[in-house]
Amino acid sequence: MCKANFHSIVGFPGVIACVDCTHIRMQGPRKAVEKDYVNRKGYHSINTQGIVNADGLFLNLVARWPGSVHDSFIFRTSNLGRALEDDPRSGGIEGGLLLGDSGYALSRFLVTPYMQHQPRKDKKGSMMLTLLQEVL
């Protein structure tokens, strides 16, 4: 059912959930760790990861990392990320894929965009989603 829901929304087969992180602004912590909480945009934050299904329901939430921590690290070290790496069926997404942005690495259970080569004269970038035949 989840795969059909996502397919009807975005026309992309096999996806059952999307993963992304967002920065939750916070007051700067004590000096000893203050720099760890400054994100790439220059303000203090907690980098919070959410995995959401086609109905907009959170399936997983990780809210424990300082703003300087990269999205892909948060996913790789999360309980779900480690479980999927060990066995893609163990995380409750048997036969399905997660869809992530370019901040994540392409894997057998996580599909990410890539930049399609464009001639130099074309200043517009083109994003395409790729899906390896083996994961279908």
Largest sheet: 5 strands, mixed
If strands are numbered along the chain, what order do they take across the biggest sheet? 3-2-1-4-5
Relative helix content: 10-25%
User: What is the CA-atom radius of gyration, in angstroms?
Assistant: 17 Å
Uncertain stretches: 121-136
Distance between the termini: 16 Å
* Mean pLDDT over the residues: 80
How much of the polypeptide forms β-strand, as a percent range?
25-35%
What is the number of helical segments per DSSP (H or I, 4+ residues)?
3
Given the helix and strand composition, which structural class is it?
A: alpha/beta
Task: Walk me through the structure.
The chain is elongated. It has helices at residues 2-10, 71-77, 79-86, and strands spanning 15-25, 45-52, 58-66, 97-99, 110-111, 113-115, 127-129. The model is unreliable at 121-136 (pLDDT under 50). A 5-stranded mixed sheet has the order 3-2-1-4-5, with helices on both faces. The protein has a two-stranded antiparallel sheet with strand order 6-7. With 136 residues, it is an alpha/beta fold.
List the helices and strands and how they pair.
Layout lengths: L1 H9 L4 E11 L19 E8 L5 E9 L4 H7 L1 H8 L10 E3 L10 E2 L1 E3 L11 E3 L7
Parallel strand pairs: 1-4, 4-5
Antiparallel strand pairs: 1-2, 2-3, 6-7
Quick description:
This protein has 136 residues and is α/β, with parallel strands linked by helices. The chain has helices at 2-10, 71-77, 79-86, and strands spanning 15-25, 45-52, 58-66, 97-99, 110-111, 113-115, 127-129.
